[in-house]
Amino acid sequence: MDRRTFLLAMGAVPFCVHAQPKNMKDIQTLQTNWKTFLPAGLAVPSPAEPLKLSKDEWKKRLPNDLAYKVLREEATERAGASPLNAEKRPGVFACAGCDLPLFTSEMKYESGTGWPSFFTTIPGVFETKKDYFLIYPRTEYHCKRCGGHHGHLFDDGPPPTNQRWCNNGAALKFIPKDGKA
Ligand SMILES: [Zn+2]
To answer: Which of 28, 45, 94, 171 has fewest C-beta within 10 Å?
Structure first.
C-alpha cells in the first residue's frame, strides 16, 4: 500500500485539507465563494442593512459583558482567552453584535498571538480608522453593519495579502457549515 492509498484508507485525504492561497487570484476565490461555508438555507444579513441601537438596547442584546465591552467600547480581550482560537471546523465567523458574516474558516490562520487571526475577509464587511490608544497609530476595524469594534489590522500576515486581521474572539460567533453547535 503506497502512502496515498494508505491515507485514503484512513479517511485522511490530504487534498481535503485546504491549501494555503498562493496568489491574489486564490484570495479572490476565497472571497467570492464564502457563502459555500454557510449551512444550507441559512439566511444572513448584509452590510447594506444597518443595525443601530441605543446603549441600553446593546446591553440587552449583548448579555456577555466582554462582548459588550469589546464591540461597543473597543476593549481588547486577554490573549488566549477565546475558545475560537482553536476553532478549525469549516464554517463562517459572524459578528456577535449583528450576525453579519465576516470571515470563513479558510481565511483563518494560526498567528501565534492568542487572538483569532485572518489573512483576508469577506468583501465589504469592515470599515477602518486610525486609533492612538497606544503611542503609535494602529488601524482599527469595525463591522460595517453595526459599527461594532472587532480588532486591529496589521501588515505582518502571511503572503500573498500580508494582512493580519487580529480579531477579538468575544466579538465573533462561529456558525459551523454542518449546522451543529
Ligand atoms: Zn456587526
So the answer is: 28
